[in-house]
TrEMBL record:
Pathway(s) per entry: Amino-acid degradation; L-valine degradation
DNA-binding keyword on record: no
Official protein name in the record: 3-hydroxyisobutyrate dehydrogenase
All residue ranges annotated as the 6-phosphogluconate dehydrogenase NADP-binding domain in the record: 4-160
């Protein structure tokens, strides 16, 4: 049973993650509402089922990779009636902390083990099997799930109990949204002051301004040749996904009574950027919006 995985949600992330499990020797049965993914899945050795319930029959481990909390809860509600007690359910989607905790409760009612295990690393990391997993759930569930997660990622961090993985993910991405907005503003200011992109990069990337948003993902073309700025701001990490994560962080902050004014401002900037039709651009394209002073 432990070598049989059901994978629900074979989209941009789930498809390559499931393919890596096949490569690692797991027997993977997949399901997705959209038949678009079926051909690629079958080519990668995934058995495609007619329904989620069908896919989880005989699986010892179930992985879901879906758009949002409501999808995860509806799929898990359907699944828990069909899985054997003791099955390990792992949700890798990025969803709100409250829904993640509800999913854990659902699993408990069916005597199943569960983990929330959102990822960072994007579609490139999903394909290369180099994702970082931020994991929440009981020690027993983590011990059992670690091996399968290692086949899809290179760093697996147990962050705490139910929901802790999602909490870590949205806090990390709130930092990312804020730092990217700050780095974009600094380059726009530098331009107005007559400073070259390279000069600002050379100083800030080796001084106290250094961070991933400048050192690895610099939002202007030139200093970091692999950053999306050199490729017409094609994602990468789409602005719509950054907005989704910033909204999740703001919802969580509201519910927990945390004051996150910088996060709120970053969410508002990305909301305006996406509303102008740039949701599909890489999130570092925010610099163009800031430069134009919209
Ligand atoms: P996607 O839209 O490509 O894939 C989601 C898949 O879920 C789709 O194929 C859809 O048909 C399927 N689906 C929806 N409802 C379903 C249901 N009820 N039953 C079965 N299948 C269903 O999205 P993605 O880019 O793969 O992202 C998945 C999750 O990973 C999201 O929560 C996203 O925020 C997170 N994430 C994405 C990235 C990224 O770079 N794309 C990075 C980190 C995290």
């Amino acid at each position: 049973m432990e070598d049989r995985v059901a994978f629900i949600g074979l989209g941009n992330m789930g498809g390559p993650m499931a393919a890596n499990l096949v490569k690692a020797g797991y027997q993977v049965t997949g399901f997705d509402l959209s038949p678009e993914s079926y051909e690629t899945a079958a080519r990668n050795g995934i058995f495609v089922s007619a329904s989620a319930v069908e896919a989880v029959k005989e699986a010892g481990i179930v992985v879901t990779m879906l758009p949002a909390g409501k999808h995860v809860l509806s799929v898990w509600e359907e699944l828990i009636a069909a899985v054997a007690p003791g099955t390990l359910l792992i949700d890798c989607s990025t969803i709100d902390v409250e829904s993640a905790r509800q999913a854990h409760s659902l699993a408990k009612t069916a005597s199943c083990l569960s983990l929330d295990a959102p990822v960072s690393g994007g579609t490139g990391g999903a394909t290369a099997g180099t994702l970082t997993f931020m994991v929440g759930g009981a020690n027993e569930a983590f011990t059992r799930g670690e091996a399968v997660l290692q086949k899809m990622g290179k760093r697996i961090v147990h962050c705490g109990d139910a929901g802790a993985g999602q909490a870590a993910k949205i806090c990390n991405n709130m930092i990312l949204g804020i730092t990217m907005a700050g780095v974009c503003e600094a380059f726009v200011l530098g331009e107005k002051l007559g400073l070259s992109h390279q000069a600002l990069f050379d100083v800030a990337s080796t001084s106290s301004g250094q961070c991933w948003s400048i050192n690895t993902y610099c939002p202007v073309p030139g200093p970091v040749p692999t950053s999306p700025a050199n490729n017409g701001y094609k994602p990468g990490f789409a602005a719509a996904l950054m907005l989704k994560d910033l909204k999740l962080s703001q919802d969580a902050a509201g519910a927990a009574g945390a004051k996150t004014e910088m996060g709120a401002h970053a969410a508002e900037l990305y909301e305006r950027f996406a509303a102008l039709g740039h949701g599909g651009d890489d999130f570092s394209g925010l610099i163009n919006f800031l430069r134009e002073g919209k």
